[in-house]
Design a protein that fits this description.
Elements lengths: L15 E7 L3 E7 L16 E6 L2 E6 L3 E7 L2 E3 L2 H5 L11 E4 L9 E7 L3 E7 L18 E6 L1 E7 L3 E8 L6 E2 L16 E4 L3
Antiparallel strand pairs: 1-2, 1-3, 3-6, 4-5, 4-7, 8-9, 8-10, 10-13, 11-12, 11-14
Function: Crystallins are the dominant structural components of the vertebrate eye lens.
Family: Belongs to the beta/gamma-crystallin family.
Keywords: Eye lens protein, Repeat
């Protein structure tokens, strides 16, 4: 068994996810109530369908929580395109996943900044925004952000499309001062829609 690599102990919570190695909830299945850093260590070559029964989760393209991120809220995902959505490029792999411990749809607050290191124009949000520009944000980029409460998913394009970045108040101290901290797949400051993660 792999040693626990999380620097902080995982609190016990209401999380439960069932993964299948075939589409439409067929084939080998396994239930999880905590993080899985590498599905191959559980005898799977990939995850091809998912049922999220409790809590919010984030899935990753690669093992060890690397690569593209996919938000997984309560519900059924019969195929990879149900969780990857309209990404810039389609990913049929999900090799690791973990609960989003700080998800709280009712109490979520984020402050976005025009430039990196929390400089420039700022905007505090407590609600979902399918288009930041339509709501008055100055351009299609966000330089940095502070997650004051809850957890958020930021999208590259309006309408909750494109790359997904999961931002949590209990990661990085809630402070994301540069796009490199948004995830190992991040390549740009471009964020054009933001929403709260459903618990």
């Amino acid at each position: 068994k792999m040693a626990q690599t999380n620097p902080m102990p995982m609190p016990m919570g209401p999380w439960k996810i069932t993964v299948y190695d075939q589409e439409c909830f067929q084939g080998k299945r396994m239930e999880f109530t905590s993080s899985c850093p590498n599905i191959m260590e559980c005898g799977f070559d990939n995850v091809r369908s998912i049922k999220v029964e409790c809590g919010a989760w984030v899935g990753y393209e690669h093992s060890s929580f690397c690569g593209q991120q996919f938000i997984l809220e309560r519900g059924e995902y019969p195929r990879w395109d149900a969780w990857s959505g309209s990404n810039s490029y389609h990913i049929e792999r999900m090799m690791s996943f973990r609960p989003v411990c700080s998800a709280s749809h009712k109490e979520s607050k984020i402050v976005i900044f025009e430039k990196e290191n929390f400089i420039g124009r700022q905007w505090e949000m407590c609600d979902d925004y399918p288009s930041l520009q339509a709501m008055g944000w100055c351009n299609n980029e966000v330089g940095s952000m502070k997650i004051q409460s809850g957890a958020w998913v930021c999208y590259q394009f309006p309408g909750y499309r494109g790359y997904q970045y999961i931002m949590e108040c209990d990661h990085h101290g809630g402070e994301y001062k540069h796009w490199r901290e948004w995830g190992s797949h991040a390549q740009t400051f471009q964020v054009q829609s933001i929403r709260r993660i459903q618990q």
